[in-house]
Records
---
Amino acid sequence: MVTIDLLNLMKEEVLYSEFQPLMNSSNDQIFAYEALMRTTPRINPLTLIRFARSHGVLYDLDTNCIKNAVKEFPFTLYRHHFLFINLLPSTLVHHHFENFINNLMTCFPHIRGRVVFEINEDVAEEEIWSSILFYERLNFLKSQGFHIAFDDLPVARASFEKMESISPDFVKLDHTKSNGLSHSKDKQQLVSLFLEYTNEKMQLVLEGIETEKDLITAKELGVPLLQGYYISKPMPLEMLRKAEII
């Protein structure tokens, strides 16, 4: 029953995106927007992903979300902002993925150089990161003009080795590193450690900024890009316009 419902969600095109801005800490201007999967009726995205994986339709779900995000993001916003889109490792190494990207570029040629694919280190797909095909597909995306972000990297030697071997354009740290940042010396030192490994060509993004104090601390540490509810919750584009965030 779950499989039928999920396939109908994709067939009836009730998947859509909400967008959350990433702010440039140096000037408080919006640098990019991240597209986040939503459904009507509302279903937890992680629940959808688990069901899709267990029923063999995860690639279909992920590529539908990617195409929806690209299609829903206005042409005028692409001119001045990047679009961050989540991409599962299993989708990246799927045998149809290169054809999907080529077709996407044919339909939406203006996205070249403006889309950032966020690769999440999902525990269920951790082994894919060590495959040769994974690295080949990352290089394929770069050759097509896409940017790469590593999302939710753990604090481990392997993370820094991946950053050195692949050189993503962005590295994102999740809310566990930012929550209570203003009064946690350990978290401040951790963020500073990642800042030592990043630069203008590999920018650090700190997610989960939920208070003014944490925002100020992140700026003082020199984190270039910030994201979180204090800046803006994920919203449909029309709501972002009304809130004057676009």
---
Amino acid sequence: MRSAPVSQPVSRPRHRTVIAGRYAMLDQIGTGGMGSVWRARDVRTGQVVAVKVLGQHSAALLLRFVREQAVRIRHPHVVAPTGWAAEDDTVVLAMDLVTGGSVRDVLDAHGPLPVGYAAALLEQLLQGLAAVHAAGLVHRDVKPANLLLDATGHDRPHVRLADFGVAAPIADARYTTVPGAIGTDGYMAPEQARGAVPDPAQDLYAVGRVGLELLTGLPPERQGRIGSGPLRPLLERLLVTDPEQRLASAEAALRLLRRLAVPFEPGPPVLDRHPSPRQPVDWLAWSAVAACAAIVAVCATVAVGVLL
């Protein structure tokens, strides 16, 4: 039996720590599969970004980091890394800051979503997947927790596909995992669970499971038959067991969804779950400013008196 890799201790970043002279850590906003997630300022560009701080450095986690940091896809419905940095035992991965939580959060809070709202989310997800597949990658872990939402309030939701830690090149046999499988149970296509080479059709099956969950509020293990409704033709073509009978591409799924012409319906508002922290008042600086103003006022009074 092979022994498990030994994890190395990792020092936690602190407020205002600057990692590798690049990312000034502002505040921790959550945790992810790889470690903690921070709001940070990119000192090179001045932009506020999200930064994943790598947790315990196991071999599996390092492999996920290497895979994810290599992804460079710029698309309105994708959140891919924009940079990375390392200093001593701290390794970080930077990406756009998305503050509205995830589709998982929305489902947990509100349950089933209106059909028109769900259709809008699926359309955006398929657009993002089309870009991912065009880049030669299969995401392999499409699920509500990996669908992040911009904080759009009561406006139309804006979803972004995230977490490329298990993404793999299309049809690359090196990324098969027989007898195990990489992905999340229930969302994996049957052939993916059997260890098939990565293929875009596997992501499309996951979209079908996500779509059914949006409509029913039920996770895959509790989902039954596809009920009647405007999205049934799409879901039936996505959830086919035989990948050869499934829709051939994200673009084909998009065309079918748009032919269904499901009108948008308002749904739960997507609020900012990570508002910027209020900066503490620097009373020392304000005291210095007040003192300077007082000195200037006194000098001005004296000068006026001398002139008079």
